[in-house]
Amino acid sequence: MIVFDLRCAGEHVFEAWFASSTAYDDQRARKLIACPVCGDTTIEKAVMAPNVSAKANARTPAPPVDVKVALRALAAAQRKVLEGSRWVGKDFAAQARAMHDGAQPHETIHGQATITEAKALVDDGVAVAALPLPIVPPEQSN
Q1: Average pLDDT over residues 28-46
Q2: Are 88 and 95 in contact (CB under 8 A)?
Q3: The whole model's pTM is what?
Q4: Which of 64, 66, 113, 135 makes an SS bond possible with 117, Cβ 3.0 to 4.6 Å?
Q5: Which residues pair with residue 11 across a beta bridge?
Q6: Contacts of 88 (CB under 8 A, 6+ apart)
């Protein structure tokens, strides 16, 4: 198999796979290749960047990721973001909506919402974001 970057007369560039260069030439001549954007069948090869692999012994392996360190850093970042935020528990959706509608003063809050509640908030343009890590509600802390 061989991959070519192709371009139509409308200057749309796209990628296509062929069994061989001969297969590409045959399909192009018979107008079997069409631009996926505009459907044009006047197709030419576009300039491609070569895919040259480094020697196997010259590759530098990616450094190992220490998951525990990464999670601790993420948890610390989340704690910092939540500084000054008020826990509202399961009343999150109602309070976020009230602030959005102007019925309650704006403040930074965090709490719990069901998937349905969260989707409804987003659909209504209420600015919310999921936390990357779960938190322990204040009433469950030691």
Answers
A1: 90
A2: yes
A3: 0.51
A4: 113
A5: none
A6: 95, 109, 110, 111
